Amino acid sequence: MKTKAICCLLTLFFLICHCVKAQDKLTIHVVNEPIISVLHLIEKQAGILFAYRNEVIDVNERITIHWDNVALPTILGVIFPSSLYELRTIGKQIVILKKGTPMPVMPPRIIDINPVVVTALGISRQQRSLGYAYADLGPQTFTTNPVNALAGKVSGLNISPVNSGVGGATKVTLRGLKIIGGDNTPLFVIDGIPINNSSPGQADKYGGYDLGDGTSIINPDEISSISILKGGSASALYGSRAANGVILITTKKGTKGFSVAYTSNVLLEKLNDNYDFQHEYGSGQDGMLPKDISTARVDAQRSWGPKMSKDSSVVIWDGSREPYVNASNAISKFFRKGLTLANSVSVSTGTDKAQLRAAYTNVRENDIIPLSKLNRNHISLRGSAKLSSKLTLDAKGTYLSEDVFNRPALSDNPNNIGYVLSGIAPNIDINWLKSYKDPVSGDYINWNNNAYQVNPYWAINEQPNNSTQRRFNGFLLLKYQLCPGLYIQGRTGTDYSKFNFTEFMQYSTPYYSTGGIALLHRNLQETNADLLVNYHKTWHKVSLEVNAGTNRMDYKEDVRNETGRDMKIRGGKDLRNFKTQLGNHQLYRKRINSVYGAITLGYDDFLYLDLTGRNDWSSTLSAGHNAYYYPSASASFVFSSLLPSSSILSFGKLRASIAQTGTDAVAPYQTALTYAANPNIPSVGGYLIGGVATDKVPYPDLKPSLTRSYETGVNLVFYNNRIQLDLTWYHSNTRNQILNAPISPSTGYTSAVINSGNVSNEGLEIALGGRPVCNKDFTWQINVNFARNSNKIIALSSLVSDYYTLAAARWGNASIIAKAGEAYGMITGRKFLRDDKGRLVLDANYLPQYTSTDYNLGSAQYNWIGGITNSFTYRRWSCAVLLDIRQGGKIFSMTNLLAYQNGQQKGTLEGREGWARSERERVAAGVAAVDWTPTGGLLMKGVKIVGPDRPQYQEVEGYVNPETYWTRVTENIPEPFIYDASMVKIRELTLGYKVLENVSVSVIARNVLTLSKHVPNIDPESSYNNGDGQGFEYGSLPTRRAYGITLHAKF
Amino acid sequence: MKFYHYCLIIILSSSCTTNFGVINTDPVNGGTIAAGEQLTAAAYLLDGGREMGYPNLYLFQPMVQYVGGTYGMRTGGKYVRDEFYNGLMWSNYYGKCIKQLADLLEQHQDDPTQVNYVAAARILKVYIFSLLTDAYGDIPYSQAGLAYYDKIYTPVYDEQSAVYKDFFVELEAAIHQFDDRQPVITNDIVYNGNLTKWKRMARSLQLRLAMRLSAADPELARIQAAAAFAGGVMQGNDDNFMMIHEDYSYPDLRGNGYAQALQEEAAYKYTIGTTTFVNYLKAENDPRLGLFFVNTDSVTNYLPIQPGLYWWEDWKDFIGENGEVVGQANKYCHINAPFYQQGGSWLHLGYAEVELLLAEAAVRGWIGEDANDHYQAGLRAAMHQLEMYPGMALLSADEINNFVAAHPLSAGNAIEDISMQKWVALFPNGYEAYANMRRTGYPELNPVVDVDGESETGGHLPKRLFYPATEALSNPVNYQAAIDRIGGSNDWLKPVWWDK
C-alpha cells in the first residue's frame, strides 16, 4: 500500500501539470484542394490527428472552404456528414469510419498511410509515428484457432502448431529463439491485461499429451484487431515477459444503437494421408513367416517376412491362419471425418454514454481420431460508460469452459496410435485389431508382444483421458480526465484458470497391468494492477505525450498430481478405486513490481522520438540482484513530408530504435535447495525416503537476463498506395541468460540454474504489398512477407560445458543442442564411420560402423519463412489464397527410423529378394550361417581396417541381410533419418460472397495442399510438443485438412 | 528524466521488494530433512524400481553367462552397445544416491550429534562408488555430487588407483567415527541403527575391495585384507547387507528393481540359464540348479541356451531320448520364480562372499587361517543365503552337508575353486560376479554364438562399461582427459586399472 502511494505521488511529481486548453476554433480557407490537404490543415490547427482506412477517403475529391472561427465539430459535420460517416475520438485522434461498415469477409490487406494502431499499454498511436516495426491484422475473420490463423501472414512470426489434436497448443516465435532453455514465447495481451500462455502439460521424449496452452481464452469472434510488437522498443513497456515480443489483442466493445451479430462455422476435417509404405513384404523376420503364436505376436509389427503371396497363409496372434496377402487397408481407415461447429452470437447496445456488449460462442469439435472431441463455451460481457464528464469506466469479463475428451497420446506413450499404426505389417488387416479384448474376461489381448505399443482400439476405447478447463479472465478500468490533456487511469485484471486432467489405464493393459489413474489439478492465477498517468500537449509544431505508470503482477500456480495404482474394481475411474494412492503438490508464487515512463515527442507530424524506461523488481531473483532497469529509444522520420508531392512516392518513413529488455527467472524458488520426502515412495518397510527435492542445482546469486536490441527500417508507399514496402533489419543480443543448463549426473543433479550465455539474433523482414488491379468492381491485392533470422550462440557459461542439450530423441541417440559458436537448435548424433575418402568403414560382417562421437547433422531452424497472400474482390465476391513457405530446416524423423527398423519403409526393399535367394541356397547346401558367403542381399561397398596400429584401408564388398543392416543403422546412426523440413503449403483458401449489406457467406479451406515437402510418410509440421527443442518427429499422427462454410449476419 | 528515474529506483528499491523473501520460499518443500531419510534414500534407490534392475539383467548377468535368451540381453550377451542400459548406473547412482550422501555429508559432517549418520553415509558412499568405478574405471569421485555446495558442474574424473586408495582411508575413518554415545541412526533401512553391523559391513566391504587389488597392487591388497579380517567382518547371514522391498509392480519404485525388470513383458520366461552356468551346476551336482532355474517337464533336464543366442534362434522342438517332443516355446529352463518376486530383497554383500574372500586371502597367505574352513563355510552360507528369496524351496541339511562334503578346496586349484563357487554364490548379483570374473579369470566363458553378426566387439567380452555419451557434451574436458588415459576413445574393451 505504502509502495503504491509513493509510486503514485512521485509519478505525479515529475509530470508537472500544465493544463492548456486545446484550440477549438479553426480558421480555414482553401480553394479546390484535395481533401487530404484539408484534413492536414485541420490536424495542425486543432492539435488532433485523423485516422482512417484508405477506402474511406476519396483521394481525388477536391473541396473549397472558407471558414473563420468555426468549431471543430461543425467542420467535421460538414466534411463528414453523420448520415455517411461515423467519427470516433480516441485521445487526440479522430477515427473516421464509413457508416455501417460491415465486417469485411476477407478484407484486402492494406497498409494504410495513416491508421491509428494500438501499441504497448493500449496506447493508440498513429502508425507513422512509430519508430519500430509494427504489424497489425485489422478486422478479419478468424477460424476457430486465431493463433494458428496468423501463420504466414506476418513477417518474422513463426507459427507451428503441435501435431496433436483438439485443444492442442501452438509454438509461437517472433524473430527467432533468444533464450536457451527458457521461455521463447511472445507475451499475449488482451485489452491491456497479459494472459498466461503456459501449458499445463506437453509431451517429451518418453511420451505425454498436449494439454493445450493459454490462448484458448481468445475467442476468435471477439477479436477486433491483433497487433504484433516484434522488437524490444515496441514491447519495452511490458517489462520482463515481453523480451520475446508482444501479441496485442483488442476485443470488440459495445457501440451506439442496438445490433445483433451471428456467426456460424461448419468445418469438415479429413486426414492428410502422408503414408507411403511398402506393400510387398508382410510379417515375419529374416525372410521367414512367424512360426507360432508367440512369434506371430512379435511379427505383427515386423514386416521382414517373405514376399506376400496368394498361395501362402500366415499364423496371427490369436492362432488363426490368414491368407498372406496385402490387407490393402490403409492406416487411414482407422480415422474418421472430423466435424467442427462453431456458433457465436453477440448483442451490442448502447447510448452515447454507455455501451454494453454480450457475446456467447460455442465450439464443438469432433476430431478425426475416433472418440476425440472438444466442447468449448465462451461467454463475455463488456461494458463501457462515461460516468461523468471526466470519469469513464470500461470493464470486461470472459468465462471459458472447455472439455476435451480423448486427447491423442503422443511420442513414446504406449497409447500413441500414430506410433502403433505406422508399424503394422501390411498383411495385417486393421479390422482384426477391433477384437482387442477378451469377450469374457475383458482383458487385453496381446497382439504384438510389445507393452509399449498397445492396440489402438484398446487405447481409444478403454483408456480414456479427459480434461476440463474453467477459466475467468477480466479487467476493470477507470479513467479520470483531470483536465484536458491529462488523465489518470487505474486498471486491474486477472486471469484465473482451473485445469484438470485425468488419464486412465485399464486393468490388464500391458504396461500397467494392474490398472492406474493419473490426475492433474492445476489452478493458476495471475493478477495485474496498474496505474497510468497520461499527459499530452501540442505547441504549434511540437507535440508531447508523456505516460508514467506503475504495475504489480502476482502469480500463483498450484499443481497437484495424484496417481492411483492397483485397481480394485475393473473400470472404476475414481482415485478411491485404487489400492495405492500417491500424490504430490507444488505451489509456485511470484511477484513483479514495476514503474515505467514514456515520452513521445513529435515535430510537425514528420519527426518523432520515443523514450521509455521501466524498472522491474522480481521476487524470483536473488536479493541483491532483483531490480533491473531497461530503457528504449526510437525515432520515426516521415521524410516524404519534406519532399515535393510526387505521383510516384506517396509516403516514406525511416525508423530506428534501440532497446534493452530484462527478464527474470520464470520459475520461482531457484535460489536455494529444497528437501522433501520422495513423492513416489511413501515408505518402504516403514522407513521414510527423502532428500534433496530438486534435480536442478539452485543458484543463490541469480541475476536478471538482459536483451539489447537494435532495429532500423523503412516504409515506402508508391503510386498512391498501389505498392507498399516495409523493410526491417534487427539485431539483438541476450546476455546473462538464466539457463537451466544440463549438467553431468556425476554432479548429483541433471541441470543447473545459472546466469550465462550470449545469444545473438539478426534478421531481415520484408513486407511487400501491391495492388495490380484496382477499380470500382475488381481489386487484386498481393501481399508478400519474408523473414530471415540468423542466430548464433556467442557464449555459454564457463561453469558448465559448451553444449546445452535442448532435447534428446527417444531413438537413435540424437540430440538437439545449443553449442557456443553455432546456431541454436543443432541436431547432433552419430554418423556412418567413413575413411578420409568418404568410403564407409565396414566391420567383418560388412555392416557399417559408426563414429564414437556426435556430429552436427543440421539445424532445425528454418533459413527463412514467408507467406504470399493473393486476394481478389469482385463486386460482392471475394477470394483469397494464402501460401505458407518455410525453407531450410531439418527434422529427425523417428517414424521413418522405426519404419526402416520394422521393414515398412519403401527403402528397405533393396536386397530382400537376393537375400532370400541366398538363404534358400544356403539351406539347400546345408551350410551353417557362419560358414556361408551370401550370394545376394543388400550389397555393401566400403573399406575395412587392416593393420591395427596405423589404420590402413582395404576396399571390400559383400552382401548383408537388409534386416540386419537396418537394425544396425536404426539403433545407432541417426544420420540417414535427418530430412529437409522445408515445405510450401496452401494454408488457407477463402471464397466469400456478400449476400446483403450485413450478411455474408464464405467457404474456407485450411491446409489445402502441400505443394512441396521432402520427408516421406509424415507431414514436416509434426512436432510432438511446443518446447524449444524442435526438430524431432516421432510417431506422428496424420495432419488434418479442413473445409468449411462460414456465415456472418448482423442486424 | 533519467535523474527522476534514479530517484525513483533508490526510493522504491526497498519498498518494492517487501515480502520477496517469503514469496520466493517454497511453501511445500522445506529447507531441511532428517539425515536418516537421506541415508535411507541413498541405500534404497540403488535397486528400487525396474530401471535399476536393467543393468544387472541385461548387462552383467549375460556378461558372466548366468543367463541369456531375451532380446535385451544382446547388449551383455553378444556385446551390442546400448546407450540406455549402459548409462543407468551412472545417471541413477550419481543422481539419486551420491547426490543425497554428498548433501548429507556437507550438512552434517561437522555436527558431533550426527556422527553415526555421517559414518554410515561414508561407508555407503564407498560402496556405491566401488560399483561405479568397477563398472566404468576412472570416475568423478572427489568432486562428485558437489554442484550446489562447491559449484562444481564439471567434476574431474579421478584415476581408479587413487579412488581405491581413498576407499580404504574413508572406510577406516568411518569405522572409527561411529560413537554409541551419540544418537543412534534412526530410519536406518540397512541395519536399523545397529552400529556393530555397520562396522562389520564396512570391514567386509574393505575385504572385498582389498581382494579386488590382488593383481594390481598385491601389497596394498594384503595389508587391507588383513586389516579387514582383524577388524571383524560379517559373522553370518544375519549380517548381510541387503535391501528390502515391497511387492509393487513398475512404475512403483517400492518393488525390487531386478524382479520388476524380469516381470516386464514376462521377460523371466525367456531368461534362460546358459550352457556355461547350467552345465557347471550339473557337473558339480549342485542342488541349487533346481532353485535357480525351472524345468517345466521331465524330458529337457534344464536345457540351457548357448551364450549369445536369442530364445527363438535355434528354432526347433526338443526331441527327448525316447522320442518325447517338447515345443520350442517350452524347451529351455528359465529363471525360478523367487527371483522375480517384487517384494523380495536384494543382496548387496553377504556373509557367503565374505567367507570365500577369506578363503582366498588364506590361500594367498594374507591371513593366518585355514582356507578350506572358510571355503566350506562359504559354500554352506551360500546355500542358506537362498532362504532370503520369497517362496524358495529350502535345501535339506543333508543336501547341504553332502554338497559341502563333496567340495573340499583342492590344493592345486584353490583360486579356481573359490572363484567358481563364488560365481555360483553370487547369483543373481552380476555386478560383483562380473568384477570378480575380470580379476580372477573365472568362470571361463563359452564363445558367443552370434547368428546375425550383430556383435560390435567381434565376440570379445567388454572389460568395462563405456561412459554415457552425454558426458562428452556435459563434461567434455574431464571426459576427454579420462578417455585419453585409456587410449583416446570411449572403448569398452579397455580394462580398468585393477584388471591386470
General description of the model:
The complex is a heterodimer of chains A (1051) and B (500). With 1051 residues, chain A is mainly beta. Chain A contains ten helices and 52 strands. In chain A, the strands form twelve sheets. Chain A has a 22-stranded antiparallel beta barrel. In chain A, strands 8-14-15-11-12 form a five-stranded mixed beta sheet. A four-stranded antiparallel beta sheet of chain A has the order 39-40-41-42, with no helix packed on it. The longest helix of chain A has 14 residues. Chain A is elongated and about 115 Å long. Helices cover 48% and strands 5% of the residues of chain B. Chain B contains 21 helices and ten strands. The mean pLDDT of chain B is 94. Chains A and B meet through helix 1, strand 28, strand 29, strand 32 and strand 33 of A and helix 1, helix 2, helix 3, helix 6 and strand 2 of B.
Major sheet strand order of chain B: 1-5
What is the straight-line distance between the termini of chain B? 76 Å
> Would you identify the regions of chain A where 5 or more consecutive residues have pLDDT less than 50?
1-23, 102-113
| Strands of chain A, count | 52
Helix content of chain A: under 10%
